[in-house]
């Protein structure tokens, strides 16, 4: 990180001020998106604290719930890739969530060697008891927007998610950002 900052400081042609225009509407949206992300992360952190979970446990549950909604098959290997953690860490995480009855392992009926992961009804109820009021408020706030507005917001959020995922992959492939 220091090397990257030093390289930027030694480049007189491009200073931080030259690259950032606080009046740019796009940058203002980036700041708002970041603010929403911070608030949601704090909310998820509170959920984790209240329930004796690690933030990665919460992320794992979210990935598994999203997979279920999308009809995707969730395996330990898939979850490991989603979380960006090694297989040993994933196994410990699944063991922990299974012990708390939040996740269950099931044998794949088509391939008995393969293990599938599913979120339990207990986990869903626990999540709704905490996040339900927030989700309901967010959905209610969206009712003040028309269908066309919501379509634009959806396109925007999908694009931002894809950019962030691509940036994460780039950073993982070249941590120095070169």
From TrEMBL:
Residue ranges annotated for the HTH marR-type domain, each copy included: 26-162
SUPFAM superfamilies (UniProt xref): Winged helix' DNA-binding domain
Highest taxon listed in the record's lineage: Bacteria
Region (Disordered): 1-22
Feature: compositional bias, Basic and acidic residues: 1-11
InterPro entries recorded: HTH_MarR-typ, MarR/SlyA-like, WH-like_DNA-bd_sf, WH_DNA-bd_sf
Molecular functions per Gene Ontology: DNA-binding transcription factor activity
Single Gene Ontology BP annotation: response to stress
Sequence ranges of Acidic residues compositional bias: 12-22
SMART domains referenced in this protein's UniProt entry, alphabetically: HTH_MARR
Name recorded for this polypeptide: MarR family winged helix-turn-helix transcriptional regulator
Organism: Streptomyces sp. R28
High-level lineage: Bacteria, Bacillati, Actinomycetota, Actinomycetes, Kitasatosporales
